[in-house]
Amino acid sequence: MGLWAALPVALALAFAAEASARADELAADAPAAQDERAPVWVFFTDKGVAPGPALAAALTRREAELPERTRVRRARRRAAAPTLADGRALELDARDLPLDPDRVAAVLATGARERARSRWLNAISVDATPQQRRALASLEGVARVADVRRAARQPVSIERGAQEGPADDEYFGMTFDQLELMGAVYLQRCGLTGAGVVLGVQDTGFVLEHETLEGLEVLGARDFINGDDDVGVEDGDPDGQINHGTLVLSAAAGSLPGTFMGAAPGVQVLLSKTEDVSEEVMAEEDYFVAGLEWQEEQGADIFTASLGYFDWYSQDDFDGETAVTTQAVNVAAENGLIMFVAMGNAGPAPTTLGAPADAAGIISIGALDPVGDVAVFSSRGPTTDGRIKPDVSARGVAVAIASPGTVDEYGAANGTSLATPLAAGLAALLLEAYPELTGETMAALLRETATQADSPDNDIGWGLIDGYAAGAEYCNCTDVDQDGHLDVACGGDDCDDGRADVYPGAPEVCDGRLNDCGGAPLEGDADLDGDGVLGCGGDCDDENADVTPGNPELCGDGLDNDCVDGDAECPEPPMTTGPGPTETDGEVDSGVDLGSEGDSAELGTGSGSEGDSGGQDGDKGCACSSGGARGGGLLGALGLFGLLGLTRRRR
């Protein structure tokens, strides 16, 4: 930890002071009665930890508190950053330290009521009267007091029941079109589901009783409005509190094969509830910041939020560094979190985006209609400092969703709120395929493979995201279940490549497995008598363990092994006397004739008839037999390993 002591606290904490300076100069305080409380930020000057050994010790303690998953992600993102004496990348800095408890206590002693804390901004938000606000500004260690900005909500229109009816695809159901448009169908058929990826979803609340969400694995949940861990319906919640979050979650991660599939049905999720939908309460940025910090610390790989902040900011403030939510997502990006944020529904005029979609370190998402054209309502860039926004776009019109408040009904919804979780879900598939992706490299991959990568604009950015192009290397060159067969969607013959428990594709092979993904198993495609020879591999008496196996014919043992012509003639010169062939280390004695007509043990031949039926003389159908010394088991094994060596690819 030698270099921790060299970390200048002033520099590490300068972020909050410098990046928030302009926010403090925005709109003047709204008139308020003397006893009327309003939410305000109280920004501190530092964390109350002196540089040197005290800072090093504090950072060591804080590092030990971070989950291993979070530390690994941060280390990957900060690989090019200064390192510790042992060569490890810096995984945290003074911004990760908790607020100075003495200064927090002084704030609360004024009578102000705590709302949320931000380590990254070195600030606490409180509900305070004007008199309390003046007292807060005079406290020692307080840099300034500023309003908590609020956002006018942009409601999402929900058409219930719109997607009911015949499924478009027997597996993807009603979501086939929206997933196919961005190439997610291709990636899922390639075997990708988002498995192993943790997706953080931040919204109004979530109900998991719907049939497409009840199997979802939730790693953690936190309600920042009520200060508890229940993100569902609670006493006192306004009507519809869980609606927006539920439909967003279903688009990203729902799973009911044959009816409804989200973009990444195999992800694990973290859920944070940060937006109050009461008519008199606007979505407030302090809950957003607190929820984002929690998501990052808990180990999310990808974060998606369909929330935006417009009120109390002017277009000049959307410069990628002024809004508090933008400042927070910038820190999260430095920590390696891959973030997707909705552009908003204030289009079609230019510069109608909000915060934090203006941040440079995140992937902001615009909305398209079902044929890939920009939706009229989708907010446009550029940012104040001239950067193109959105980054990329996905479908946001007539998006199939789980109908909130029901357990088995579906509907359709419009908005960049829906395009964003679809894009985040596709990113989860890509992160499963390419686990070394960071926020920067994910953004670059999506931009470079989108539909107008060569001519981006402020309507749809670099264009419609394209899973076909982004995942082509993985899907075309990888044997996901490592069975020696590539997926059919990628030019191979394995129609179930994403499932190691289901056998490879085609052609059908006599190996004791159902390889053709749905056809009837081979007759005798098993070794019932346990003698190492399958029924379709030449054992015509496989059900009778008392009868010697059938392939190859063992001449001179007095038994009819092939069940066709009787015991084979022994070759000349006569074989040695004795009861028959002997076995040493599993190998048949060299005196045994392994080449009798109709009993070839060569790889690629067997005793099944054409059409994958077994048990008759001939050499069509089965490609090989398995197990045992008799029947070329060793040759079959060598052939299989050779095939694996040729078709597998390092990942």
Would you kindly provide a written description of the structure presented here, covering whatever features stand out?
The protein has 651 residues and is an alpha/beta fold. The chain has helices at residues 9-19, 53-65, 68-77, 101-108, 130-137, 176-181, 184-189, 243-253, 285-298, 324-334, 416-433, 439-448, 467-470, 472-477, 633-647; strands at 38-44, 113-118, 123-128, 142-147, 150-151, 158-160, 198-203, 217-223, 255-256, 260-261, 268-273, 283-284, 302-305, 338-342, 363-368, 392-395, 399-402, 410-413, 583-584, 587-588. The strands form six sheets. Strands 8-11-7-13-14-15-16 form a seven-stranded parallel sheet, sandwiched between helices. The protein has a four-stranded antiparallel sheet with strand order 2-3-1-4, with helices on both faces. The protein has a three-stranded antiparallel sheet with strand order 6-18-17. Helix 8 (243-253) packs parallel to helix 11 and helix 9 runs parallel beside helix 10.
Please provide a brief summary of the model.
The chain has 651 residues and is an alpha/beta fold. 23% of the residues lie in helices and 13% in strands.
Structure keywords:
23% helix, 7-stranded parallel sheet, 651 residues, disordered C terminus, elongated, alpha/beta, 4-stranded antiparallel sheet
Secondary structure topology:
Blueprint: H1 9-19, E1 38-44, H2 53-65, H3 68-77, H4 101-108, E2 113-118, E3 123-128, H5 130-137, E4 142-147, E5 150-151, E6 158-160, H6 176-181, H7 184-189, E7 198-203, E8 217-223, H8 243-253, E9 255-256, E10 260-261, E11 268-273, E12 283-284, H9 285-298, E13 302-305, H10 324-334, E14 338-342, E15 363-368, E16 392-395, E17 399-402, E18 410-413, H11 416-433, H12 439-448, H13 467-470, H14 472-477, E19 583-584, E20 587-588, H15 633-647
Parallel strand pairs: 7-11, 7-13, 8-11, 13-14, 14-15, 15-16
Antiparallel strand pairs: 1-3, 1-4, 2-3, 5-12, 6-18, 9-10, 17-18, 19-20
